[in-house]
Structure to design on (228 residues):
């Protein structure tokens, strides 16, 4: 199994451009998450989804959009890229909290995004 | 606001030596605490989980402790190896929802 796969691994955008960060998981997890990790800071939750068709805002959702049309995929959209969105973005997935509690979030290897 | 504080921010240790990382939290109500290891350029990977009733848990050379009364956890690395060089992230889960509070991580560098 591949786990959580993120593409692209690296990207440089100009201010005002848009792009979609792709995330797919093959573990049949119902929960999926998007985080950003800035240097020296803890991960911050951008959006999450508890199942196909359901999404919710996290701690820092401004400037981003998500969709969840399938269980496997959870893309993150940046509509008007700004320098403040320069960061490393991590996608994660897990079983719901109603299943066995000892189930961690499984993370992808991240997308390193620079806005210039 | 629920917070997780980790110390030291970074440390350098000689291969073969032991080290202890600290995590203090204010998350309430508490559900569980998990330590993740994040290698450079990779996503975090879970090392161990501590629930309210657990005091100590070991995973190979990693030993985690939890004192739920003082809201403190530690991660002890025994006989460090070069592959232990990574950031160790403390993540505390709030009871009743899927909300997580992330620490900033302890950056460990093991030198030969």
């Amino acid at each position: 199994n591949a786990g959580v796969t993120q593409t692209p691994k690296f990207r440089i955008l100009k201010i005002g451009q848009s792009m979609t960060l792709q995330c797919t998981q093959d573990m049949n997890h119902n929960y999926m998450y998007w985080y950003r990790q800035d240097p020296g800071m803890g991960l911050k939750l951008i959006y999450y989804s508890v199942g196909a068709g359901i999404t919710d805002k996290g701690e820092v959702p401004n400037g981003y959009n998500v969709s969840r049309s399938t269980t496997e995929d959870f893309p993150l959209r940046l509509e008007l890229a700004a320098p403040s969105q320069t960061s490393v973005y991590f996608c994660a997935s897990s079983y719901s909290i109603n299943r066995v509690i000892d189930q961690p979030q499984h993370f992808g290897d991240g997308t390193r995004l620079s806005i210039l | 606001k629920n917070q997780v504080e980790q110390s030291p921010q970074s440390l350098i240790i000689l291969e073969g030596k032991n080290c202890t990382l600290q995590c203090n939290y204010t998350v309430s109500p508490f559900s569980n605490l998990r330590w993740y290891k994040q290698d450079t350029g990779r996503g975090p990977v879970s090392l161990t989980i501590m629930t309210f009733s657990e005091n100590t848990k070991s995973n190979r050379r990693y030993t985690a402790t939890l004192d739920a009364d003082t809201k403190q956890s530690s991660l002890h690395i025994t006989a460090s190896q070069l592959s232990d060089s990574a950031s160790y992230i403390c993540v505390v889960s709030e009871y009743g929802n899927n909300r997580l509070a992330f620490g900033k991580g302890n950056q460990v560098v093991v030198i030969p």
